[in-house]
Design a protein that fits this description.
Elements: E1 4-8, E2 15-22, H1 34-45, E3 49-54, H2 58-69, E4 74-78, E5 93-94, H3 106-122, E6 128-137, H4 156-171, E7 178-180, H5 182-188, E8 197-207, H6 210-223, E9 227-230, E10 232-238, E11 243-249, E12 255-265, H7 271-279, E13 286-297, E14 305-308, E15 317-322, E16 325-329, E17 333-334, H8 346-357, E18 371-380, E19 394-398, E20 403-408, H9 414-428, H10 448-461, H11 466-476, H12 480-489, H13 505-514, H14 519-526, H15 529-532, H16 541-552, H17 556-578
Parallel strand pairs: 3-4, 3-12, 4-9, 6-14, 12-20
Antiparallel strand pairs: 1-2, 5-8, 6-8, 7-8, 10-11, 11-12, 13-16, 13-17, 13-18, 14-15, 15-16, 19-20
Helix pairs in contact: 2-6, 2-9, 10-11, 12-13, 13-16, 16-17
Length: 588
C-alpha cells in the first residue's frame, strides 16, 4: 500500500494533500506508508534472531553493526527514540581523555585515541579534528588534574608539555601540539584572560555530533540487514536456549515475545535494571553520574576549544564550539534520581559559569545562557570512591544464560566495546566470525570530497547559502543529497529557525529514513532546535508539527498532544533558568 504525496507550501506553512499521485522520494523509489512499514518491522521482529540488542544508544548501535556485519541476523529495540539517553548529552567530543593521563590510565587513553583516529577515517563527515587551547596560570594548583607541590609549580608547564607530547605519541596521529605565546592564545580563543598567564599550549582532539554518529552507525547496521525499532521496550527476559524476551510497542500498545540465541544488554544507565529483569541481576553495579552542559551564545566564530585547566574538584572542563554556539561542560556528581529525567539546576549552571569566568576578561552572565542539558554516565562501580575517579573503561559480562551485558565505556570507544562483546558471542559459536568494523566506513562517508562538492553545487541551485551545504554534509554526509532532493522536489528548502541552517526537508527525511515519530524528538534530538534556538524552537515547532502531521497522518488532536508534550519537555529542561540561584557548589 502506498501513501499519497502531499504538496507543501512554504507560505503560511500550509500542507495540502494530493490524493492523485503516489509519493516518491528523490531517487525515484516510492515510499511505503510509514505506519505499514513499522507494522512490517514489528511482525518481522517476532520471527526469531541470532542476536537481539536491548538499547538504541551508541553502544547498542555499535553492537548491532558489528553483529550484522559478521553475518548474524540482528534486531535492536529501544524503548524511546534512538540516542535519546546519554548518547545525546555528551560534550560532542571523540577524544582520548587528557585528564586520564595524570591518573596513569595509559591503556584507556591509548585505546580511545586509537578509536579517535579510526573514526576520523571511517566517518570524516562526522568526526573532524578540533584544536584546543590549554592555558596555565600562575595561580593554577592542579593543572589538568595533576597535583603539583608548590615548590615545583614554576616547572608545571614543562610537565604539561611532556604530557601533551605523550598524548600525541599514544595517538600515532598527524595532529600536532605546540606551545603558544600569550598573543597566540588570546587570538585562538578571543576573550581569554592573559594577565597571569604562565604558559599556553595547543593540542588536538576531535569533535562530533553524538546523535548523528549514532544514526550513522544504525543506518550502516541496517545496510547489513539489521532491524531497528524505536519505542519498543524489553519488559521481561526469560533465559534459555533460545532466550525469550517480552517486548512492548509503546506506539501501538502491542506486546509480543521475541526469541533470540543471544541477547545483548546495551541499555547504558538502565543496564542494571535490564539485568535484574532476567539477564542476570547482581553481577554488576552501575553508578550513575550526572554531567551538565550549558549552551552559550558565540558572537564571533571560533575554530578552537578551550580547556578549563582546573576545577575545584580537580577535574577538567571544556568550552567547545558547537553548531554556532559554545558548549560549556561538564559536571560530574553522583545521581540517584529518576534516570529518565536528569535536569540541570541553578547550582550546576553557577558552577560551570564560575569556572569559565575565571579565565575570561568579560564574564558570561547567567542571563546569557541559552539552554542546558543533563546526561548520566553509566560508570562501573568497583569499591568506594568519587564518581569523578571511577574509570571510564568498559566490561563485558557473560551471564552464561544466553544474555550478555556490555557496561561502562564512553562515546569514543563504542566500536571497541561492540567488538569485545561480539568476540564473546563468536567464541560461543565456535569463533569463526571476525570483526569487520575496524575498516568499515559508516553510512554517508562515501567519497567525502566529491559528496561535499556535489552538495554545495546542489544547494547553490536552490539558492541556499554555503553554510547550509556544510551543515547538511556534516550532519548526513553523502545522504545530505537526499535531503536536498526532498527540498527541491517538495519545495521544502526554507529554514525552520532564523539564523540556523536546519531545513524543513530534514523533517521529512527523518520520518522516511530514520523512523522519526514525535515532535519533541525532532526538536531535541534530530535538529537540536530546542537548545540551539534562542526561543527554544517555539517559533519552529508549529511548522515542524505540520510537516510531521502530513508525513505521519496525525489529526488535529494528535498535533495538539504533540505540541503539549513538547512544551512540557521544554518546561522540564529550562526549569533551572526560572529557579532562584542557590549559589555555586563543588561537585563531589
Amino acid at each position: 500500500m502506498l501513501r499519497r504525496a502531499g504538496r507543501r507550501q512554504a507560505s503560511g506553512f500550509r500542507v495540502t494533500l494530493r490524493r492523485d499521485t503516489p509519493r516518491a522520494i528523490a531517487n525515484g523509489f516510492f515510499v511505503p506508508d510509514l505506519h505499514a512499514q513499522r507494522a512490517r518491522s514489528w511482525e518481522e521482529l517476532q520471527r526469531g534472531w541470532d542476536v537481539l540488542i536491548v538499547g538504541g544508544g551508541i553502544t547498542g548501535a555499535g553492537v548491532a553493526l558489528d553483529a550484522a556485519s559478521r553475518g548474524y541476523r540482528v534486531a535492536l529495540v529501544e524503548r524511546a527514540d534512538f540516542a535519546s539517553g546519554t548518547s545525546s548529552r555528551s560534550t560532542k567530543l571523540v577524544h582520548g581523555g587528557l585528564r586520564y593521563l595524570p591518573q596513569w590510565q595509559f591503556g584507556l587513553v591509548r585505546e580511545a585515541l586509537t578509536e579517535r583516529e579510526r573514526l576520523r577515517r571511517l566517518a570524516p563527515h562526522l568526526v573532524a579534528p578540533l584544536p584546543f587551547v590549554v592555558p596555565l596560570y600562575k595561580e593554577t594548583r592542579r593543572p589538568l588534574g595533576l597535583r603539583i607541590p608548590a615548590v615545583v609549580r614554576p616547572v608545571a608547564p614543562l610537565a604539561v608539555n611532556i604530557g601533551l607530547w605523550g598524548y600525541g605519541l599514544l595517538s600515532g596521529s598527524d595532529l600536532p601540539h605546540r606551545r603558544l605565546t600569550a598573543a597566540d592564545a588570546a587570538g585562538a580563543f578571543p576573550g581569554l584572560r592573559t594577565d597571569t598567564l604562565q604558559a599556553a599550549f595547543l593540542y588536538h582532539d576531535a569533535a562530533t555530533d553524538d546523535v548523528r554518529l549514532t544514526h550513522a552507525v544504525l543506518a550502516t547496521a541496517r545496510r547489513f540487514g539489521a532491524v531497528t525499532l524505536n519505542y519498543v521496550e524489553a519488559t521481561g527476559l526469560e533465559p534459555g536456549r533460545p532466550v525469550r524476551v517480552t517486548v512492548r510497542d509503546h506506539l501501538a500498545g502491542s506486546t509480543a515475545t521475541v526469541e533470540a540465541r543471544h541477547v545483548v544488554n546495551a541499555a547504558g544507565v538502565w543496564a542494571e535494571d535490564v539485568a535484574a529483569g532476567g539477564a542476570g541481576g547482581g553481577r554488576f553495579r552501575i553508578e550513575r553520574s550526572k554531567g551538565v552542559h550549558l549552551v552559550l551564545p558565540m558572537p564571533r566564530p571560533r575554530q578552537h576549544a578551550l580547556v578549563i585547566p582546573e576545577t575545584d574538584d580537580g577535574r577538567l572542563a571544556f568550552a567547545v564550539p558547537w553548531r554556532g554556539r559554545l558548549l560549556l561542560g561538564t559536571t560530574d556528581e553522583p545521581y540517584t534520581g529518576d534516570p529518565d529525567v536528569p535536569a540541570a539546576t541553578p547550582a550546576d549552571a553557577a558552577y560551570l559559569l564560575d569556572h569559565l569566568n575565571r579565565y575570561l576578561m568579560q564574564p558570561v552572565r547567567s542571563a546569557d545562557v541559552i539552554a542546558a542539558f543533563a546526561g548520566l554516565r553509566p560508570l562501573i562501580r568497583r569499591g568506594a570512591g568519587r564518581t569523578a575517579a571511577l574509570s571510564r573503561s568498559h566490561e563485558v559480562i557473560d551471564h552464561g544464560n544466553g544474555a550478555i551485558s556490555i557496561i561502562g565505556g564512553k562515546l569514543t570507544t563504542y566500536r571497541r566495546m561492540a567488538e569485545d562483546t561480539l568476540d564473546v558471542l563468536a567464541r560461543r559459536d565456535g569463533g569463526a566470525a571476525r570483526c569487520r568494523t575496524a575498516d568499515l566506513p559508516l553510512d554517508g562517508a562515501e567519497q567525502p570530497d566529491r559528496a561535499a562538492a556535489a552538495m554545495a553545487a546542489a544547494a547553490g541551485t536552490l539558492g541556499l547559502p554555503p553554510e547550509t551545504a556544510l551543515h547538511l554534509y556534516h550532519t548526513y554526509g553523502a545522504r545530505g543529497q537526499r535531503v536536498l532532493d526532498i527540498a527541491r522536489d517538495e519545495r521544502l528548502e526554507w529554514p525552520l529557525a532564523q539564523g540556523l541552517p536546519t531545513l524543513a526537508a530534514e523533517v521529512v527525511y527523518a520520518c522516511r529514513a530514520e523512523a522519526l515519530v514525535s515532535l519533541s524528538d525532532f526538536m531535541f534530538l534530530r535538529s537540536r532546535l530546542a537548545v540551539l534556538a534562542t526561543d527554544h524552537g517555539r517559533a519552529a515547532a508549529p511548522k515542524v508539527g505540520e510537516l510531521l502531521a502530513a508525513e505521519l497522518g496525525w489529526d488535529r488532536a494528535e498535533r495538539a498532544r504533540q505540541a503539549r508534550a513538547y512544551e512540557d519537555a521544554l518546561a522540564r529542561e529550562t526549569a533551572f533558568m526560572q529557579m532562584p540561584a542557590a549559589g555555586s557548589r563543588t561537585a563531589t
